[in-house]
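Appendix C: a fully annotated inverse folding record. The material below is reproduced so that readers can follow the format used throughout the book. The structure is listed first as tokens, followed by the designed sequence.
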């Protein structure tokens, strides 16, 4: 029994590591320091300075010193660095590569690395980024889509946390084309093991338009209980979601990997592609600015105790890209 305990301790301490924040002595600001998902601390990604990015990228290409991974489906080369931004692009009728899992080009994302991170319950995370809709953006009444998701990695399961854009008439309490928060982890009866999860969906009041730029901050405590879980989103400095709520599912009781970009799942199917095209939507193009993240161990004494400081550090509006 003692040998098993020692083994578990070694695994847990080797998978996750702590790295100190490096401060620029000239500006008193955190230096850009991309870290892997398995490292705790402040992390940032500056698209102008990070090397290792391949313009004609393939799915599963490691970028930014192996801290992020390209995740595309349909065809390669749908992500590129555009000055100080990362550009994402999906095209409904693009010629798909032979490895594609659907009929269309439907995924253009980057994700944290390594995959299947499985953060322990109680882990605290902050994310900050700017998301911009291209001047060509138009609302798609036929198909909803994700701009951000955190996924357990289990194939076929919905993301645990997501920011999504509705299609027409999708939910009675949301506007057509509204950006909304999805928490797939809430359960209908937490006292009954195996009760199916249901989704808590809440509108942000924001309907994206062409050229719109959003400064987004997310704060999460990974938990299987409403009393200790936390999910918060701010957009352009305004709170749009703030709940003590469970954030992991019964099936996957741990925190997952973050993904940014475009995930238009319905474009796997030709019938949904046809419906979008009938509405005049044939492609989607968006951008993100530099990324900022804080990941803090569930054992860290500062866990969930430095919220004002953390928000200010992670808020993308305070940085000049």
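Designed amino acids, in order:
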């Amino acid at each position: 029994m003692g040998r098993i305990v020692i083994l578990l301790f070694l695994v847990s301490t080797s998978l996750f590591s702590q790295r100190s924040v490096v401060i620029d002595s000239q500006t008193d600001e955190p230096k850009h320091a991309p870290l892997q998902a398995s490292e705790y601390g402040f992390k940032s990604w500056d698209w102008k300075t990070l090397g290792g990015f391949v313009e004609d990228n393939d799915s599963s290409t490691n970028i930014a010193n192996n801290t992020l991974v390209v995740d595309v489906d349909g065809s390669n080369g749908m992500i590129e660095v555009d000055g100080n931004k990362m550009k994402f692009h999906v095209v409904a009728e693009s010629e798909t590569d032979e490895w594609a899992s659907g009929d269309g080009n439907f995924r253009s994302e980057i994700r944290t690395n390594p995959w299947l991170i499985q953060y322990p319950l109680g882990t605290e995370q902050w994310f900050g980024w700017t998301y911009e809709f291209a001047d060509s953006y138009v609302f798609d009444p036929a198909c909803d889509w994700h701009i951000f998701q955190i996924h357990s990695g289990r194939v076929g399961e919905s993301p645990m946390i997501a920011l999504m854009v509705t299609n027409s008439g999708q939910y009675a309490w949301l506007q057509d084309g509204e950006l909304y928060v999805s928490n797939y982890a809430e359960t209908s009866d937490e006292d009954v093991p195996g009760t199916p999860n249901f989704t808590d969906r809440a509108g942000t009041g924001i309907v994206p338009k062409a050229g719109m730029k959003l400064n987004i901050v997310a704060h999460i405590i990974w938990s299987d209980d409403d009393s200790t879980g936390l999910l918060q989103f701010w957009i352009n400095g305004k709170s749009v979601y703030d709940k003590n709520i469970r954030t992991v599912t019964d099936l996957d009781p741990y925190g997952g990997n973050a993904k940014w970009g475009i995930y238009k799942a319905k474009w796997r199917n030709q019938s949904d592609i046809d419906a979008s095209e009938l509405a005049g939507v044939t492609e989607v193009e968006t951008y993100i600015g530099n990324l900022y993240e804080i990941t803090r161990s569930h054992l860290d004494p500062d866990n969930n105790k430095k919220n004002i400081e953390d928000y200010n550090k992670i808020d993308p509006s305070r940085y000049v890209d």
